[in-house]
Amino acid sequence: MLSKLSTKYALSAVFIAGTAAGIYAQAQAPAARPQRKAPTGQGLLGQAGAADKHIVDADAAERGKKVYIQECITCHGPTARGGQGGSDLVRSLVVLKDRYGSEIGPFLKKGHQTQGSPAAQFSKEKIEDLADFLHLKVGDTLRTSPLFRAQNVLIGDAKAGEAYFKGDGKCTQCHSPEGNLKGIGAKFEPVDLQQRFLFPKPGFGRGGKPTMVTVTPPTGPAVTGTLVQIDDFNVSLRDADGEYRAWSRINGLKVKIDDPYAAHAQLLDRITDKNIHDVTAYLETLK
Amino acid sequence: MKRLKLITAFAGLATVVFGQGALDNSKLLKPPTTDWPTYSGDYTGQRFSPLKKVNDGNVQNLSLAWLYRINAPGATATVFKANPIVVNGVMYVTIPDHVWALDARTGREIWHHVHKSEGGIHLGNRGVGISGNWLYFETPDCKLVSLNLKDGKERWQKSICDLDQMYYASTAPIIVKNHVLVGVSGDDLDIPGYFESRDPETGELQWHWSVVPKKGEPGFETWPNEDAAAHGGGMTWGTTTYDPELNQIYFGTGNPQPVVAGKSRQGDNLYTASIVALNPDTGKLVWHFQPSPHDTHDWDNNQVPVLYDGEINGQKKKLLSVACRNGWFFTLDRTTGKAIVSKEYVKTNWAKGVDAKGQPIPNPDKEPQFAGALVSPNQGGAANWPPPAFNPATGLFYVNAARAFSVWYLYDTDDKPEGWGGTDRGGWSESMLQAIDYKTGNIKWSHKWEGSGGRSGLLTTAGNLVFAGDTTTNFVALNASTGEPLWHANVAAPVANAPISYELDGRQYVVVGAGDMLFGFVMYGK
User: Which residues, at least 6 apart from A245, have a Cβ–Cβ distance to it below 8 Å?
Assistant: First the structure.
C-alpha cells in the first residue's frame, strides 16, 4: 500500500516537473492533459506542503465545479467547508492526501452517496476534475490565494472624518484637501489609503521624505544633512553639497534627528478605530 | 541527596560507550563553560555564561578569531538562525536541511550533512540536540534525523509530522534524560498542535501530548465544539526548559487556528498561546498559564520560559519568567504556575486588564475587523523566537523588544472561516533592549536602538555583559547593569541568532551568526 502510494506520488512529481508527461499519461490518464506548473512568486508560503503536492489546473477545476454543484453541494456546502450533513472537505485527509484523484477516486468508487449519478460509475476524468476543484477550495483558504484580500473598509462617516481632520487630528497643520492631499481618494484603493495615512513612511528604497540630521562636534560648526546611517557608535549624512560626512559618536558629539514622519508615529497612540474609519471615508471623498 | 537523584537520572546513558567527541549529558545540568551543549546553554533557558574572562572592563579587546561562511550550493534558507551547540571543541550548527560540524577554535569545517528534502517551509532551523554520541535535528519535511556526532553519517530518520497537512519542523530537539523532545510548526490548514518525546536510540514515539484537549478532557470547555478543537492549532516551535528537581519541562504553545478569524472558535482556546508544564516521563500536563486567551493576532506564545531561583517578598522561590510576543511579561511560581507578576514590557493596546489568574483580558474591539483595527503589537510581536537572557548576578531579564503597530483585517467572509482568514498590514515600529526586574516587571533600564526592525537573541555573562544585535548590522556588548553600549563589530548583516560563549584552552570565545556567516570572537591575552 505504502509503496503503491509512493510510486503514484513519484509519478505525479515527474508530471509536475514537466519532464516526462508522457509517462504519466500512459500510467494515469488516457487523454493528454495540460501540463501543470507550480505557481511562482509565492515565496516561503508557497513552500508549504509536500514537494509533490497536487497542483491545480484552473480549467479542470472549473469543470470539477460543475460536477460538484451537480453531485455534492447540498451536503458539502458551497465552499466545500461542510454543509447539510456533509463533512468539511477542505480539511478532509482524503482530499489533503489526494493527488489528481488518487484518494478521492477510490473513496468515491466505494459508492459514496451523491445527488444523482452513482459515484461508483464516475469516469476517471470526472474524478480528476472533482479533485482539482476540491484542491482549489483548499487553496482558497491559504494566504497565497487571490481571495486573501481586504473587504470593504469604507464603514466610516466622512463628515466626522472631516471634522477630525480639521480638529482633534490636527492634520491641517501639514495637509490640506486642496493642497498636498488633493485627489488622494482617486489615487488609492480605500484600504491602501487607510494604510497610507496611518503609516506614510515608505519602506526601504521607496523614496519618501528624507530624515534630516544635525551633527555638532565638540569643536567646529554644526553640520546638517540627510541622514545616511545611524547606530549607537557612528553617524553619517550627506550634506547640502552632496558630500558624505561621517563621525564616531564619541567625545560629546551631539546628534539631533528631525523625522518628518514623527507626527504620524505619535498619532498611533491617540487615534481611535472610529477616527481611522471616519478619516478614511473622508479622504476617499477627495477625488 | 538531590545530586544523587540527578546522577541516577543519567545512569541509563552511562552504560553506553562514549566516543571521543561524545557529550557527557551531566553537563546539561550545569551552567555552560567549556561547552554550550544545548539550545540555551543549559536547561534553565537563562543563556547565562558564568565565564568572565571577557567582561565590562576589557570587552574593547575582544577580537575576531574566525569567520565561517556557508558554502552549500542549492541551499535556500542560508541564514544562521540556529543556535550553535558546542561539545568538546566542536561546534554543530544548522540551516534547514543542512548540518555542519566546525572546529570551535578555528571555524574550520569538519563535516557537512545534507538532508534530501521532500518539501515543507524552509523558514529557519533552530539547531541540533545532542545526547552522548548522537545528534538530532528536525527538517522542513517533517523528519527527526539522528546523525553520528563524529562524522555526520545518518543513523535513522523518523517522520514526526504530516507534510500533506502543511506541518513542518524547525525546532532544536531538547534532550531530557532518555527523551528527545520535539515540537512542530504549521499555520496554514487549521491543524492540531502537539509535542512529542522520542526514543534517543530508535526515534520511536514515547509519548504524544496534544495541545488542544479532546472531548471530555479538562480544557475542552474552552472550545465551542469538537470540530473547532480538532483544528485548533497551537504549534510547539519554541525551546523547552527543564527543572530536574521538580521533574517538569516547560514550553510555550502557538496561536490557535484559524489564526486571525476567531469567530468559529469562541472561548479561551486552551492550551494554545499558553505556557505549559509537563512531566517529561509521561507527557502529562502539570499546569498551564495562558498569556493570550482566544488569541486572534498570531501571537504564538513560544518565547522561552526562563527558569531561575529568586526571592519574592523575602521568600525563596522557584520562578519562571517569559517575555511574550503579545507584549506582556510574566513571572510565575514554576512549581504551581501561579502568576506573581503580570505586566507589559512595552506599551500595548489590546488588553482591558488582567483577570484573577493574572492573565490579560483581550479587548474584543481590538480583534481583527473587516474595516481594520489598529493594534499594538503587530504580527511580529513585541518579542518573537529570538531568545531572551537572564542574569542571576543582576537579577535582570533581558529581551530585545519591539513596540509596533499594524492594522488587523478580517478577510474571510465565510460562515466558517478557515486558514488565516485575515492578517495585519503595514506598520510602524521601534526597537529597544529591555532589562526587566523579575520581581516587579518594572523596566530597570531600556536601551532604545536607533531605527527599527532587526532583532536578535541575547547572551548575558558573569562579566556583567549582555551581547545583542542592534537594528542595523552591529553585534553589540552592553553593560548588563546599566545598558551602556561598550563594544561593537559591524558583522555586515543583521544578527540572525543568539550569541553563545565557551572557553577552550583558557580562552573565552563569543560566537554569533549574521546572514550566512558565523563570527567567532575571542579574548586573547589575560
Answer: A215, A223, A225, A236, A237, A238, A239
Q: Which amino acid is at B240?
A: T
CB–CB of B340/B332 below 8 Å?
Answer: yes
φ, ψ (nearest 5 deg) of residue A7: -65, -40
Q: What is the ipTM of this complex?
A: 0.93
Give the pLDDT confidence of B388-399 residue by residue, as tens digits: 999 999 999 999
| pTM of the predicted model as reported, rounded to 2 decimal places | 0.93
CATH topology of domain A2-140: Cytochrome Bc1 Complex; Chain D, domain 2 (1.10.760)
Tell me the three cell numbers of residue B352: 482591558
In whole angstroms, what is the distance from residue B195 CA to residue B282 CA?
12
Active-site residue among B298, B424, B437, B516? B298
Residue B420 at interface with chain A, using a CB cutoff of 8 Å: yes
Task: Provide the domain count of chain B.
Answer: 1
Hey, CA dihedral for B470, B474, B479, B483, is it positive or negative? negative
CATH of the domain at B90: 2.140.10.10
Query: CA gyration radius for chain A?
Result: 30
The predicted model gives A253-272 an average pLDDT of 95
Is B505 assigned a catalytic role?
A: no
Question: Per the structure block, which three cell numbers stand in for B104?
Answer: 570551535
Please tell me if residue B504 touches chain A, with a CB cutoff of 8 Å: no
Neighbours of B288 (CB within 10 A): 16
- Give the residues across from A216 on adjacent strands: A254
